[in-house]
Amino acid sequence: MKAERPIHKLPPNNKALWIMAVIGLAVFLYIQVFPLTSNSTDGLQQERTGQIISKEKAIQAAHQFTETTLGLDRTDTETKPLVTYQSDSEFYGYLSKSNLLTAYNNKYEKRFPYDIYRVSFSNPDSHIKQLEVDVHMTTGAVVGFEAVQLYSRKDREVMLDQNQPVALQTLQQLEGKLSLTDKQNKAIPYLEALGYRAHELDLASGPDDLGLTYLVSKHVIGDAHAELRFQFEYGQVSSMEAAFSVPRSHLDYVESQTRLANWLYFGGYALLSFVLGILAIVYSARSRPYASFGRGIFLSVFYFAVNIFSVINLMPILQSQNMSKGTFTILLVIQFLFTLMVSASIYFSLVGGDGLWRKQGNNMWMRANEPGYGRHVLNSMTQGYAWACILLGAQSVIFVLLEGTIHAWSTTDATQSTYNMVYPWLFPLVAWTAGIGEEAVYRLFGIPILKKIFRSVWIASLISSLIWAFGHTLYPIYPVISRPIELAFIGLLFSFIFLRSGYITVLFAHVIFDSILMGLSLMIMGGIGNILTGIFYILLPGVVGYLIYVFKRRREPGLPTFVQED
User: Fold this and answer.
1) pLDDT tens-digit profile of 231-241?
2) Closest CA to 276 of 490, 460, 504, 494
3) Which of 184, 203, 334, 385 has the smallest C-beta neighbourhood within 10 Å, fewest atoms?
């Protein structure tokens, strides 16, 4: 067996590292944080004026609307409703892409919000199976509703997209024998309840059109127009929606980009990650004399547990999809099995990666029973904070370059918002699963196995970084190629940290990097509790690293208190 070479480490007091860290942090704060200090609903993405109301106040506004406008008794909606954050990501994306966000927020957002609280009541009436009331997130005003008796707006869209005459005929029959004038008369009470007057509306529907659509006079931004849309069931108004139309050219662009994102994700990430997982099993067995199958169990189990809880934490947004209990159960089982498979892949990547490096005579993941482990963890943690600041600064510069060259832009994603979590304060725990899993698969195992194939650590680092980067293409950032470009550079930096200082250091760097971003997303939600929780998660890696150091120092009394590592 070859004598193991210790990994090369930067000294803990390396001045150049900390100077770069201070510069990186300053760049990050200047580019990403300071310009967006107003409240937002989606991390650092969104500008907003006004304080966001609580979900309880949204429920109160919905109750009042159902009583005064829809005529439902309070007892019919007494059961606590589901409240979720919903976003018109297509329209927000159009505004973002066209640099119209500030103008829109100043002129139209109060009346036509792209972000709302959706208050959902189940079976509030014998004739209504689902009632949804949309509430403005800062003013508390009701801006729309849907009382579903048979088909929801989504159902109608799916039916019409099929372009089948029978679907159109079904919806026409469902409306009842209403003339255009009948529809206008039935819409009047709802228009008045939401503050609209006839003189500011232009009829956009014809006698043969489904539903009823008004254009709001002089409410135009770019190529988008403000619309009020009504649907009817059994001769009555079943929904009202106030929103801006999205230009067809923008929708086509997003659709084409989504297709590309799916190809990159499933072909460039999912498939190649699966191959790496199979290779990890094979090389765990082949490097058995150098590897320990007892290692990685705790990290893999921790990864599995946190990810399963993350799915449960997103229960509100899952429940809002109105799936049947059977479909919902199947979805959870599939997610459980998928997470189990990924956790197993991470376990074998930890075992196989450690074995491959030790077989080459390199100790890239120090064992807890090796002398100096506690000090190594402490130094890895402190360097991890420095590297995280450098990475944040580098990412900020990359964002600026991408915006200036390929005009990168982003939109909202309600499915990942902390406003749709049962326990938002536990969201930053995901930072630990990202650091553990991604650094195990794409650095600890990915680099040595790809190096065996391509005979170059540089090429191995680049390919593993690209595979990792392709796994982020489903995020709502456009052009889709933006994230692979950004994360290819970030991945190479992670590779450099790993090759320079080992797995524990790059793990801390990754965890701290994500903890800062996720902690800030909590802090920006506002409230002393969220702010303190965000700070706690940013400091948590330091606490963990220090506690491990203290524990190991007590177990190794023969070692000096301070050890300077080369």
Assistant:
1) 888 788 888 99
2) 460
3) 334
pLDDT digits (tens, 9 = 90+) for 52-104: 899 999 999 999 998 888 888 765 555 789 999 999 999 999 999 999 999 99
Tell me the backbone φ, ψ of residue 407, rounded to 5 degrees. Answer: 55, 50
Question: 409 by DSSP, 3-state: which?
Answer: strand
Half-sphere exposure of 83 (CA within 13 A, CB side): 21
Contact 41, 48 (CB under 8 A): yes
Cα(366)–Cα(374) distance, integer angstroms: 10
Yes or no: say if 337 and 264 are a contact pair by the CB < 8 Å rule.
no
* 3-state SS string for 511-523: HHHHHHHHHHHHH
Q: How far is CA 366 from CA 148, 310, 383, in A?
A: 59, 30, 16
Structure tokens that stand for 388 in this block: 């995280």
Q: Cα–Cα distance between 470 and 491 in angstroms, integer?
A: 11
Beta-carbon count within 10 A of 234 CB:
12
Structure tokens at 474: 């489903």
User: Tokens 């991408």 sit at which residue?
Assistant: 402
pLDDT tens readout for residues 373-409: 999 999 999 999 999 999 999 999 999 999 999 999 9
| Interatomic CA distance for residues 510 and 391, integer angstroms | 9
Cβ-based burial of 392 (10 A; exposed 0-12, middle 13-18, buried ≥19): buried
| Partners of 224 in the β-ladder | 221
Q: Residue 198: its pLDDT value, please?
A: 74
How many whole angstroms separate alpha carbon 77 and alpha carbon 190? 20
| Angle at alpha carbon of residue 324, lines to 321 and 327, rounded to 5° | 90
Give the tens place of pLDDT for each residue, 413-465.
998 898 999 999 999 999 999 999 999 999 999 999 999 999 999 999 999 99
